[in-house]
Amino acid sequence: MLYRWCLVDGRLEESRCRKAIGHVFQTRRRGYLGILGEFRRLLKLERARHLAIVDTAELLQTDLRARLRKALVAAYGEDLITEFTQSPELIGGMRIRVANDVYDGSVKAKLVVLARSFGLASEGQGSSSDQQSQNPLS
After folding, report:
1. Is the pTM of this model over 0.85?
2. Closest Cα to residue 100, out of 50, 38, 42?
3. What is the pLDDT of residue 58?
4. Is 36 exposed, middle or buried (0-12, 13-18, 19+ CB in 10 A)?
5. Bridge partner residues of 127 (DSSP)
6. Cβ burial, residue 3 (10 Å; 0-12/13-18/19+)
7. What are the domain boundaries of the chain?
8. 110: phi > 0 → left, psi -120 to 50 → alpha, else beta; which?
9. Do 127 and 106 contact (CB within 8 A), yes or no?
10. In Å, what is the CA distance from 22 to each residue of 37, 46, 65?
11. Are 78 and 45 in contact (CB under 8 A)?
């Protein structure tokens, strides 16, 4: 109920969230720490739903970043926040994470798949390429 009160037209209203947290903290009803903990969890999930993390082995050029952001916004909505990070361990390619969707086109992920096909890596190792969804960028 607290979380729903903070939604305005399906989007979280920051000022309402602050008021709700302040009210719960001020009243200190029994179980208020648990309520605040659950509220924090829901806020983190909501933020993750609107956050795209793009990992690449090398930093992307500005024009490529803009095109990639445009494609992600078309797939996930206008309120998407895009973060670009450099992860040299990917060797090449990129990995995109938006909430529970992971698109892993990195060289590292392909090497893990190849190693598994030869029985060189256990099922628990590797990247999240096993959880890939259909690519909305193609």
Report:
1. no
2. 50
3. 93
4. middle
5. none
6. middle
7. 2-48, 50-131
8. alpha
9. yes
10. 14, 20, 39
11. no
